[in-house]
Design goal:
- The structure is a single chain.
- By secondary structure, the chain is of the alpha+beta class.
- It has helices at residues 36-45, 78-85, 164-170, 193-199, 204-213, 228-245, 254-261, 267-277, 294-306, 314-324, 363-373, 379-386, 396-403, and strands at residues 25-28, 56-62, 74-75, 91-93, 101-103, 108-122, 140-146, 148-158, 216-219, 222-225, 252-253, 278-282, 288-292, 312-313, 340-343, 350-353, 377-378, 404-409, 412-417.
């Protein structure tokens, strides 16, 4: 009922479309409250039995300034309800040209407007039967006023955070080390955590986790990605020191590293490199140690070798790679899952750089890009490139069944696109 309609009693829909009497609510737009006798008379007109209803009936009246645009409804699950009840915030994020998402401290939700054929009413103080203390012995009326109404609400659905943009922003100002002498760093766009929270469609915890994953660090209050060559330079300093001191890769002392390498690079950068490529732990006497991760060191070395080559002879690459990693570390192709693509069909076999982080975030666009690169994939080959697309309780197999078509080729199961791929 429009807010500008003069106060008159609303007729009850006796055809039962609203069935308002069955849910213990009788609408009224009059200052004169309905009596119990009037409610009973209305039930007779609607052909409803009083004994089939709850003994407490809510009589609703519209307030004088009721409009449908004053309120928005949002459907929350138990987790988000507890989040709000604990006094925490939910934040809507996204640039003007992006679809808005809702973020808690650690999760991201898609926001979608859902329409409903039933008019939703905002009634402060209206109690459902489970909220009533106990059923009264005799029928009772409870008068409540409607503050607003709506025929739509925001529906939330858990989704993967959109983090591809994070690396793109930080790539605008990569850190290549401190300036030397009178040299000054070229002014570039830099981002604080608050800047990133305003631009990236993800929760704070998800953003912080991804910053760690891409080896970003905070420098003078701004988050920066290290230039890859500079990052390898830092790693080279560490591995050369390990070799010269004959340390085990599983026991690299932080204090000695800093004493030896600070004359070459800033203390914070040396420690950042150790955090990126190693696991920090304390010995029994409290000394801080790092265990270098063989897979991460070998993967970074492989990326360095492949970054300027379109394709590399696989056998030759493996030999050069083996000679390039620190002595005592062992290279394996499974260290490069999600980083490189091996073509076993070519003669000779080749390897090329294909990083999962460079592929589209959208599921359909990701599959289109992958099938544009290679027409047919085995599950083992494509898995590292779609694993991150899997939702909660979703497997890679289920994702492939939905977005790809399977067939047998030379006795092996392969997958190709369900839709034509533009050339």
């Amino acid at each position: 009922v429009p807010a500008n309609v003069s106060p008159t009693r609303l007729p009850v829909n006796i055809a039962g479309k609203l069935r308002i009497a069955a849910s213990k609510k009788i609408f009224s737009r009059t200052a004169n409250m309905r009596t119990l006798e009037e409610v009973r008379a209305t039930l007779q007109i609607a052909k409803l039995k009083e004994e089939d209803l709850q003994p407490v009936t809510h009589c609703l009246t519209f307030g004088s300034n009721v409009t449908s645009g004053d309120y928005c409804l949002m459907e929350l699950d138990d987790t988000l309800c507890k989040h709000i009840e604990a006094g925490k915030s939910l934040i809507i994020r996204g640039d003007k040209d992006e679809h808005a998402v809702l973020c808690s401290e650690d999760e991201t939700y898609d926001l979608k407007m859902a329409d409903t054929s039933n008019l939703l009413l905002f009634v402060p103080g209206c109690k459902t039967p489970d909220l009533l203390p106990h059923s009264p012995a005799h029928p009772q009326l409870v008068h409540a006023q409607i503050w607003g109404c709506s025929n739509s609400y925001w529906e939330l659905r858990r989704q993967r955070p959109k983090l591809k943009k994070l690396k793109k922003l930080l790539s605008e100002s990569p850190y290549s080390g401190p300036p030397y002498g009178t040299q000054q760093e070229v002014p570039q766009q830099k981002y604080t955590m608050e800047d990133l929270l305003g631009r990236i469609q993800a929760s704070r915890e998800e953003i912080e986790a991804h910053l760690h994953k891409i080896h970003a660090c905070e420098i003078d209050g701004h988050w920066r990605m290290l230039d890859f060559d500079y990052e390898l330079k830092l790693l080279g300093h560490v591995t050369q020191l390990v070799d010269s001191e004959s340390w085990s890769f599983s026991r690299v002392p932080l204090t000695v590293c800093l004493e030896e390498l600070v004359p070459l690079e800033p203390r914070e950068m040396i420690e950042h490199c150790l955090n990126c490529y190693g696991r920090r732990f304390n010995t029994e006497d409290g000394e801080v140690m790092y265990a270098l991760d063989e897979d991460k060191v070998c993967s970074a070395t492989a990326q360095m070798l492949l970054q300027n080559a379109i394709k590399f002879n696989l056998a030759e690459f493996q030999e050069v790679w083996r000679q390039s990693v620190p002595e005592g570390m062992n290279t394996r192709l499974d260290q490069l899952r999600g980083l490189t693509l091996v073509d076993c069909s070519s003669k000779p076999e080749t390897i090329s750089l294909l990083r999962v982080e460079d592929l589209p975030e959208d599921t359909l666009e990701r599959f289109s890009a992958l099938f544009g690169i290679r027409e047919k994939w085995t599950q083992d080959d494509i898995e590292p490139y779609i694993q991150d697309l899997c939702g909660e309780k979703q497997t890679v197999g289920a994702l492939l069944t939905k977005h790809a078509r399977s067939s047998m080729q030379n006795g092996r199961k392969v997958f190709n696109s369900r839709r034509p791929i533009a050339s």
